[in-house]
Write a structure and sequence with these properties.
heterodimer, A: 308 residues, alpha/beta, six-stranded mixed β-sheet, four-stranded antiparallel β-sheet, 10 helices, 14 strands, 29% strand, B: 251 residues, mainly alpha
Chain lengths: 308, 251
């Protein structure tokens, strides 16, 4: 069942910056929907309109059939969120912050307390949960997630939830994000963490320059890429950039890292080329692997001429 | 949803936001309270240096003007500065996206600052009574007077904070503080000001703010108490309505 419906959304800031251009997407109950895109792509502008903090120039946003552009009070009731900036937890312990937001969102005291315990335990925050100390960036972000998840809305908006979080807690965080959806919420997830998001999202949209460039399940987007393998090379900084063989097509080049697509039939030629380039000292190492969501992302962002 | 239930939830939201405000500022609470006490003491002693001949009328204005001034300055400086800081840190947007009545965050802030100021106000009044031999006759109207003065000032301060860029808020509030201190009939009678400024003040709420607090503390009003409460009530209602509108405004 569709919970969040965004239709032909356009938003221009003062000064003429077109932040969202005719965006259409939908998120169903039980679904984790990823919004991927480079900085300045318009992702946060989009979620701020869902939360009714910004008003679109054109288009419609509904949550459970309610037009939240006209009813911002309903947007606040139906959506819980974790902001891109750190949640305002200064002076509070993690438990106090989570319990206050749970109560503000209408949770009953005992239920809020139990859920706060559960979340803090799951994210390995129990030991520090009762200390009202200045939190590190990662701790504040995890607490911000708990504040969004303690009494979740029909839509849970998470804007860069994994930033600054250590790898072990990040793994636990992805599990909790998945669980929110399994419990029936529609999760709208903004992230730069393409590789990890691939394991968690059901569908995603790649946004660049304010427009949706691609939308669908990760598997389908990878299939549409038309190349099942990726060749990744680390270039020698002192050598000139190498000329790729016809068997490989360039996807992205960032710093010393080169990514190229390779068809199954051409993998032998591509590996032979890479081995020669390594022997000649043009590249320092290379690998061939199955194409990932990162390749899809890089292809679309690169294709639109937007820096990744 | 029935009206009493909505009202119950509104009070609950206000209570939770107030608790949040108390918790996040608890480490500063004693320090801020001490500063308010020191300010009250400073006003009583400082003004007595400024005016060497303290007549009973002057003493009355000093004693009742000090708490009025601190209540107005709370609304016009502390509330907007706190709101501007919240806009910069992202707290303002965070709270704006919570399912709470639009005025609840501002009311929670005002309640917190009133609590911070309470000991300072009591100390100021006791000190004034001792130093200037002023006799107070507290009336029940002092409570609505304090509420009206605080809310009207806070509504204006909130309006400043959401209208001006956060970086300009401190300058605007400092300008207003100076204007209040030097050109408003709080610590001195209205007739000391030039005619045009007297006319202006008859239309502004400041004269009435000083009058309702003075009347609530002494039982004696400078003019009609009905007029003073009426004008102030109208300003307060308009200020709160504009605050709700500002809180609902989305770009």
């Amino acid at each position: 069942m569709t919970v969040l419906q965004v239709e032909r959304l356009t938003k221009t800031y003062r000064g003429g910056v077109l932040a969202n251009d005719d965006i259409t997407l939908d998120v169903a109950a039980g679904e984790v929907f990823g919004l991927l895109g480079p900085n300045g792509a318009g992702k946060t502008t989009l979620v701020n309109q869902v939360l009714s903090l910004l008003v679109p120039d054109q288009g419609r946003i509904t949550v459970d059939g309610v037009d939240v552009v006209r009813r911002p009070d309903e947007a606040r009731r139906l959506c819980s969120f974790q902001p891109q900036a750190a949640a305002p937890v200064e002076g509070l312990s993690a438990r106090q912050a989570v319990e206050i937001i749970g109560s503000i969102r209408g949770g009953r005291h005992a239920a809020v307390r139990a859920r706060a315990d559960e979340l803090l335990e799951a994210l390995d925050l129990s030991e520090i949960a009762d200390r009202p100390v200045r939190m590190s960036g990662g701790m504040a972000r995890l607490t911000g997630f708990c504040m969004a998840a303690v009494v979740p809305g029909r839509v849970v908006v998470l804007d860069e939830p994994t930033n600054d979080v250590d790898p072990l807690r990040r793994r636990a965080l992805w599990q909790q994000i998945r669980r929110l959806a399994d419990d029936g919420a529609a999760v709208l997830l903004v992230t730069h963490n393409v590789l990890e998001a691939e394991r968690c999202v059901d569908r995603l949209a790649i946004v660049a320059g304010g427009r949706v460039r691609a939308i669908g399940a990760p598997g389908r987007l990878k299939a549409e890429l038309g190349a099942p393998l990726r060749l990744e090379c680390t270039l020698d900084p002192d050598a000139p950039a190498p000329q790729l063989p016809p068997a490989a097509s360039l996807t992205a080049m960032t710093g010393r890292r080169l990514l190229a697509h390779v068809q199954l039939a051409d993998v032998g030629d591509a590996v032979a080329w890479a081995q020669r380039a390594q022997d000649d000292g043009v590249i320092t190492e290379f690998s061939v692997a199955a194409a990932s969501l990162e390749d899809v992302y890089a292809t679309w962002v690169q294709m639109e001429g937007t820096p990744a | 949803m029935t009206l009493p239930l909505m009202r119950g939830q509104a009070w609950r939201s206000y209570g939770l936001l107030f608790r949040w405000q108390m918790l996040r500022n608890r480490q500063l609470f004693v320090l801020l309270m001490t500063i308010q006490v020191a300010l009250g003491v400073g006003v009583i002693y400082g003004f007595s240096y400024l005016v060497p001949q303290i007549t009973p009328e002057v003493a009355l204005f000093f004693a009742t003007g000090a708490p009025t001034l601190t209540l107005i300055l709370m609304g016009l400086t502390l509330v907007p500065q706190e709101t501007a800081q919240a806009r910069v840190s992202g707290r303002f947007d965070y709270v704006s996206a919570l399912p709470v009545p639009r005025l609840a965050p501002m009311l929670a802030d005002v309640s917190y600052w009133l609590l911070v100021q309470l000991p300072g106000t009591v100390v100021t009044l006791l000190l004034a009574a001792w130093r200037f031999d002023v006799h107070f006759h507290l009336t029940g109207l002092v409570v609505p007077a304090i509420v009206l003065v605080s809310l009207t000032s806070a509504a204006v301060g909130y309006g400043i904070a959401v209208t001006f860029p956060p970086s300009a808020t401190a300058q605007v509030t400092q300008f207003l503080s100076i204007a209040l201190l030097l050109f408003s009939p709080i610590e001195f009678p209205l007739d000391r000001l030039p005619g045009w400024l007297q006319d202006l003040h008859r239309a502004l709420p400041i004269t009435y703010m000083a009058d309702v607090i003075r009347g609530g503390l002494t039982g004696h009003y400078g003019g009609s108490s009905t007029l003073a409460f009426g004008v102030l009530g109208a300003y307060c209602a308009a200020g709160l309505a504009l605050s709700v509108r500002a809180a609902n405004r989305r770009s």
